[in-house]
Design a protein that fits this description.
two-stranded antiparallel ribbon, Glutaredoxin, 2 strands, alpha+beta, 77 residues
Length: 77
Amino acid sequence: MMRPVVAEVALEYREIFSFVKLDVNTQPKKTAEYHIRGTPTYIVFKGGEIIQGFVGAMPKGELVQRILGILEIEETE
């Protein structure tokens, strides 16, 4: 289950990026618009444009690194 991982990452990285949840059961038009075929699906936007998307559950560190990599941000910890 990715929900607790996403919640933790969203809190820790709130100054860098945000998560928005799309309920695929109640938003079928948006689901189709974004070509969502599996869950969890992550779509990274920058400046209102889709940069890249990816699908699948993963450990917290991998999720963070994928998002930061797509956004071309180096982690400074």
